[in-house]
Inverse folding.
């Protein structure tokens, strides 16, 4: 029989900070990222006192803790003063825009998603560091407001269809060229004794659509 969860000790609220829509962009992942960013600027012993609850950061302590933790509250307030400008990291971009990792990579590579630089972090408990692109929150907000991911998906579908068409046409022309190798197209304007003239470059000429 599974054990019932251990009840949490009672706490008291020190202070609450509402996160604006411009800061979270409607993303719970972004709200959690803001929490982690603010926690990183607190003393280690104070970090676990700060939580995210229903779109707000809250500073809670045990009811038995007599400290008012004002220094911690002030540190949180300072850090949140410009939190709307906090660069957006990859997992937040994917949640905000409802896109897949492969789409993020593709659109970043072709410039539709614009990088605001890179950040290098060390993974917890590991010596290895990772570097990733970050994004300007105003750019991501603009992409979201204009529903550009849907536009880009449609563009990608059309491009893929065109690439398949061109690939099939090129394969057909290549096959036709091999078959014509034994009986090349010859110019018959001269006498039977004239040297036969093989038309070269015909496949490329047709592939460019100049015969249509």
């Amino acid at each position: 029989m599974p054990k019932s969860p251990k009840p949490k000790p009672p706490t008291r609220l020190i202070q609450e900070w509402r996160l604006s829509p411009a800061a979270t962009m409607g993303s719970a992942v972004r709200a959690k990222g803001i929490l982690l960013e603010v926690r990183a600027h607190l003393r280690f012993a104070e970090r676990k006192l700060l939580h995210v609850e229903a779109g707000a950061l809250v500073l809670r302590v045990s009811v038995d803790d007599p400290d008012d933790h004002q220094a911690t509250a002030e540190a949180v307030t300072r850090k949140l003063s410009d939190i709307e400008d906090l660069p957006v990291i990859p997992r937040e971009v994917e949640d905000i825009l409802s896109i897949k990792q492969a789409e993020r990579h593709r659109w970043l590579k072709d410039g539709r998603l614009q990088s605001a630089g890179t950040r290098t972090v060390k993974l917890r408990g590991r010596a290895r560091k990772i570097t990733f692109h970050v994004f300007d929150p105003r750019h991501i907000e603009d992409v979201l407001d204009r529903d550009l991911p849907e536009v880009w998906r449609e563009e990608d579908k059309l491009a893929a269809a065109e690439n398949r068409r061109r690939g099939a046409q090129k394969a057909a022309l290549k096959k036709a060229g091999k078959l014509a190798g034994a009986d090349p197209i010859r110019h018959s304007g001269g006498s039977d004794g004239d040297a036969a003239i093989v038309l070269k470059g015909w496949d490329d000429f047709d592939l460019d659509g100049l015969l249509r």
In short: The mean pLDDT is 86. The chain has three domains: 10-84, 87-146, 153-187+196-207. Strands lie at 11-18, 50-53, 56-62, 118-122, 129-133. The longest helix spans residues 148-180.
